[in-house]
Amino acid sequence: MCNQFNTSSMNYTVRDSTREDCRDIMRLIADLSEYEKMPDEVKLTHKELEEDGFSSSPFFKCLVAEVPEEIQSRDGHTIVGYGFYYFTYCTWKGRVVYMEDLYVMPEFRGKGIGKALMSRIAQIGRARGCVRMQFTVLDWNKPSLDFYCGQGALNLTAAEGWQLMRFEGEAFEKLAQATN
Amino acid sequence: MCNQFNTSSMNYTVRDSTREDCRDIMRLIADLSEYEKMPDEVKLTHKELEEDGFSSSPFFKCLVAEVPEEIQSRDGHTIVGYGFYYFTYCTWKGRVVYMEDLYVMPEFRGKGIGKALMSRIAQIGRARGCVRMQFTVLDWNKPSLDFYCGQGALNLTAAEGWQLMRFEGEAFEKLAQATN
């Protein structure tokens, strides 16, 4: 799958990622975690990303946005954004496409690349029979909230009160070992 | 997979669901949507549940809790609870097991059935290499929040500010059709 875009100011391609893109995806994952002010949270290894995404039963899918070499980033990169997704399920409505991450390098923002990645994920979800697309955003991340809401996204936490919960570390271990 | 439990007051079994359980699962999904005060939201059909969960590439997995016929519910049911889950992915930590629904019929609560379903999901997730289990709860649902937090769950919306977002209906269609 590959979409070519040519906006007034920039050529770029949105395409499915391959195993060879993992180094770039890891770089962008780290960039996003810094933007989200939790850089120490990234524990994923390059090997895990490769194995979990590019084996016969992948846990996720990932799109990348690529620009021609002549307009590469200041530090020499041509993969300038990514959209990371997978399929989930809602017992009320059915199939759901879930966008885990959406990120575009700062120097390439404002060109429609983020919107193109997000639209492509929605398109893939729709083709697979999904009725909605879900994702999470940090409440202080006003530019992203404005961007998503401007496209018609609904904040379910604000509208209906949904809280995202997690078992991790010792609590997760204890739960997995519990016997009644 | 099947776990037999025999607590002081009740025998029950937690097991993988089969296609034949779909009618009971649909009934419990409807019960949960009433408890969550959104009964009109359930649009899923019995056929969709069967096709999406019990084909060669299932979108979800579901456990059921079953009691012997002699202690069936007042209206004659032996499937008295369910735990609905699937696998997702975190670009910071890797594999995640996601518990979409956890529900036990009111007359069978307080016997450890909910905890047993939840523990089994964590156990399955752990065996599959997951490092955490995630789920959502409505902010007004104090009994459930207390139950989960009592087991060590963290409310990420309260702690870090994560907001659950959604594109649906016209906004989702528009996004899927957008071209830059």
What key phrases describe this protein's structure?
homodimer, 180 residues, alpha+beta, Aminopeptidase, 6-stranded mixed sheet, 6 helices, 33% helix, globular
Could you walk me through the main structural features you see in this protein, from its secondary elements to its overall organization?
The structure is a homodimer of 180-residue chains. Chain A is of the alpha+beta class. Chain A has one domain (2-135): Gcn5-related N-acetyltransferase (GNAT) (Aminopeptidase), CATH 3.40.630.30. Helices cover 33% and strands 31% of the residues of chain A. Chain A contains 6 helices and 8 strands; from the N terminus they run E-E-H-H-E-E-E-H-E-H-E-H-E-H. A 6-stranded mixed beta sheet of chain A has the order 1-2-3-4-5-6, sandwiched between helices. The mean pLDDT of chain A is 94. Chains A and B meet through helix 1, helix 2, strand 4, strand 5 and helix 3 of A and helix 1, helix 2, strand 4, strand 5 and helix 3 of B.
**Name given to the CATH homologous superfamily of chain A:** Gcn5-related N-acetyltransferase (GNAT)
Helix content range of chain A: 25-40%
Strand order within the widest beta sheet of chain A: 1-2-3-4-5-6
Give the mean pLDDT of chain A: 94
Put simply, the count of helices of chain A is 6
**What CATH architecture of chain A do you see?**
3-Layer(aba) Sandwich
| CA radius of gyration of chain A | 18 Å
The largest sheet of chain A, given as strand count, sense and whether it forms a barrel, is: 6 strands, mixed
Number of strands of chain A: 8
Quote the distance from N terminus to C terminus of chain A. Answer: 49 Å
CATH class of chain A: Alpha Beta
Largest interface: which pair?
A-B, 78 and 78 residues
